TrEMBL record, chains A, B:
Residue intervals of the Moybdenum cofactor oxidoreductase dimerisation domain: 239-348
Essential cofactor(s): Mo-molybdopterin
Domain (Oxidoreductase molybdopterin-binding): residue spans on this chain: 33-208
Leader sequence segment: none
Keyword presence, Cell wall biogenesis/degradation: no
Swiss-Prot/TrEMBL keywords: Metal-binding, Molybdenum, Oxidoreductase
Protein name: Sulfite oxidase
InterPro entries per UniProt: Ig_E-set (IPR014756), MoCF_OxRdtse_dimer (IPR005066), Mopterin_OxRdtase_euk (IPR008335), OxRdtase_Mopterin-bd_dom (IPR000572), OxRdtase_Mopterin-bd_sf (IPR036374)
CDD domains: SO_family_Moco_dimer (cd02110)
Length: 353, 353
């Protein structure tokens, strides 16, 4: 793991670990805003309340017994993924320089949030489903437990889980055990870990991490002065890709070289094509797309190109199912908190015999 | 109207007509692939067949009597909108140089496709809903009536209509009367006019305009050799915007000048921000967003900037609700049929006192 902080613990997957269709459990990225809570599964209960007909309080055993078990393979991606590319444009003080590894894929087991909401009975006026956790973040203003929300339309999708297992093993504490939300296709921040409370409500969560953080502010904004509602609130992940091999800043012999990477289209869109260029986008070669592991995962891609001698810049970009492509330059996407960098992927190499 | 062809009739809305929240009926863009059919509403019937429990044959009166009347204000946008910007990069023989006016907004009245499909009873295995029309296109290979399809997940959305009225008036023949599909947020090609048959089926339509046309081919492809399944099939519209005032290539005095335009996010996304630049994207001013006329319409925007003397290049770009922005350059989006140009909007002016 590439560890950015010890407390709160923030670490990204190394590029090599991202080459598997499912990320090894011990290499799955970890993004935290406070201390990792220690929860006693025996006394833990999940509360479901707010705009519901029948508030619930469920133990893990009750949750498992009452609702059908469901498995979804899903990629999670942090909104700060690839922030390093924005920091190269202009510094972003106080935020970690995540590379492409704030992204990982796992097989999640749990129950559908939709089934739990149906059992509770959503009442008229329920527009959003808020998640609350016990980890108090000192980074929030004021310090508060972590939380967030998603609109009801997403919450009732069959892909949204309350998960107690990851790759067939009990959900590790660092990944939200005993229970977390898994919201495929949305920024990882909405897949709330150590889930304790689900509240149906009219409006999005007023929690700091929904109302103020995880927002694209205009370049001239002062993030320390940003208040609730400022900027673009992030939900679905934007189309993105990065290069996984060869390794960056390595020395390779010139000649035919396998270039691989991942792409992710976000929410209900699909990756339709990935192009790779050796001349900064003047000409492109279409990469081959690997078989995809279900609709909620990344799309691995590969191509073999003849690398010339000297300094080589490899560029990659993805297209989605609307015929849209990633934007070219991180300079035009720079924002004060460094979110949603989905500019072309670039990797520099020295090719010498 | 800016008329591109008389036969088949293809004409776009002038920029001035796009400044209204709803486009005047006589200025709504018209995109056709064959002669405009003359249909006798008295003998016309809509067939609903394929993977359904109860095939239907409905007159217009039966359709109106049997299902609740619904109104949706929706923007339609042709996949070839703003092709002119791609043609400036490299010629696209045989395709019309549409400007920003292959886009218009109307208030549509009809019934929900979802209600009609529910009455027919979709059978297991129905993945797509195909639309068929009688207008035979000589541009198809081989010549054939126009058709297309949308996935069932979109077809059952409350926004998808079978419409018989536009702005409260009977649907004009040129816009698909007596009945057309209206698929908000998707390329106009799927809002099939002169609708005669709706078929539930496992796969997308095999019609030329679904299987072969309306696809983003890679730049090196020979479009005359493209076959079914090649390229990226277009469905949801990609994030886009253009500048509506001042008029292009006009001469204006320097000084504070109102700049307006439209933006469209496509399908279930929203326009979150629009930026305007006078220095080709080095710095941006956030435009003010007008009140939006419902979730399925474009987003008008406006800002007042101090234009300097000399040649002025105004640039605009939109951001959507995923925090994604439009890509910079049409050169990187060029494709052999000229679809889905959603690069930054640019408008050149001469400012002289």
């Amino acid at each position: 793991m590439v560890v950015h902080d010890r407390e709160p613990f923030n670490a990204e997957s190394p590029r090599a670990a991202l080459r598997d269709r499912e990320t090894p459990l011990d290499a799955f990225y970890s993004r935290n805003h406070g201390p990792i809570p220690r929860i006693d599964p025996a006394s833990w209960r999940l509360a479901v309340d707010g705009l519901v007909e029948r508030p619930l309080a469920l133990s893990l055993d009750e949750l498992r017994a009452r609702f059908p078990e469901t498995e979804v393979v899903a990629t999670l991606q942090c909104a700060g993924n690839r922030r390093a590319g924005l920091i190269e444009v202009r510094d972003i003080p106080g935020e970690d320089p995540w590379g492409p590894g704030a992204t990982s894929t796992a097989r999640w087991t749990g129950v559908r949030l939709a089934d739990v909401l149906a059992a509770a009975g959503l009442r008229a006026g329920a527009g959003h489903v808020a998640f609350a956790a016990p980890d108090v973040s000192q980074l929030a203003h004021p310090p508060q437990p972590y939380g967030g929300s998603i609109p009801v339309a997403k919450a009732v999708g069959p892909e949204v889980l309350l998960a107690w297992a990851m790759d067939g093993r009990p959900l590790p504490r660092v990944h939200g055990g005993p229970l977390r939300a898994v919201v495929p296709g949305w920024i990882g921040a909405r897949s709330v870990k150590w889930l304790e409370r689900i509240t149906a409500q009219a409006d999005p969560s007023a929690n700091y991490f929904q109302a103020t953080a995880y927002r694209v502010l205009p370049p001239e904004a002062d993030p320390s002065a940003a208040g609730p509602g400022d900027g673009i609130s992030l939900g679905p992940v934007a189309l993105n890709c990065d290069i996984l091999s060869p390794e960056a800043d390595t020395r390779l012999p010139p000649g035919p070289t396998l270039i691989t990477g991942y792409a992710l289209a976000g929410d209900d869109r699909a990756v339709a094509r990935v192009d790779v260029s050796l001349d900064n986008g003047a000409t492109w070669t279409q990469a081959e797309l690997d078989p995809q592991n279900g609709p909620w995962t990344w799309q691995h891609w590969r191509t073999r190109l003849d690398l010339p001698e000297g300094t080589v810049l490899i560029t990659a970009r993805a297209w989605d199912s609307t015929g849209a492509a990633q934007p070219e330059s991180p300079a035009h996407l720079w924002n004060p908190k460094g979110y949603a960098n989905n500019s072309w992927a670039r990797l520099r190499l020295a090719c010498r015999p």
